[in-house]
User: What shape does this take?
Amino acid sequence: MKLTNNLYFYPEQGIFDCNTYVIKGNPGIIIDPGATMFLPALIDSLHKDNIDPEGIDIIANTHLHGDHCAANEAFKQLSGAKIAIHPIQKKFYNQVVLEVARVFGLPPAEFKEDSCLDNDRLSAGDAEFELILSPGHSLDCVCFYCHEEKILICGDVIFEENTGRVDLPGGNADELKKSIEKLSQLEIEYLLPGHMDIVTGAEKVKHNFDFIKGNILKWL
Ligand SMILES: [Zn+2]
Ligand SMILES: [Zn+2]
Assistant: This one.
C-alpha cells in the first residue's frame, strides 16, 4: 500500500510477523522484512505495487527481534540487497537475538550483516532519515525519522494506543518512557509502527502520544 510518493506499507500477516516498510528509489530500502513464512506473500504484494525486489538495495531493521528480522537472509538471497544493521544492533546482537529467541523457544534468526549503517542518518529513496536510538522495548531499538516528510518508522516503541512490551530480556520501562517522551517532540504526520495499524495525520498522532502518556505509561 502506497503511503507517500515513495513510501510503501505492508501490514503484518500473522503471528511472529511485523509491518514492513519499503522506500523506493536509489537506494531502495526495506525496513523489517518480518517472518520468512510470509515472505512469498510479501513479494507478491511488492510486485502488485510495481516494486521489483531486485531494485531494493538495503535491508534494515528497527530492532532485531525475530518477528522483524527472521526474513533478512531469505530476502537478501532473492533480491541481492545487503543487510545493514545499526551499530547498536551489532553491539547487542547476542542479548537481543539469542536471548529473546530462547524466551520464545524459537530458533534465533540467522543472518550475517554486510555492513553497518551510519550512527545517525540514512539516505533512502530521495529522502534523508535521522536514526534515533529509542531503547526500552529492546536494547537495540532504532526509529527512522524523515523530518521533511514527517515520517516516523518506530518499530515496537509505540503502537496505536499502546507501547511495546518491556518484559523481554533488555526491556526497561523507564527507558521506554524516556524514548516516547523524546519521540513525542517530533513533528509527525505518519506514525508507522511495527505492529497493528498505522496512525496518520498530525492531530491523530498527537492524540495517540497523549493517550499513551495518560493511560499506558503510568502502568509500566
Ligand atoms: Zn520487538
Ligand atoms: Zn515486533
Remarks:
- The two ends are 33 Å apart (CA to CA).
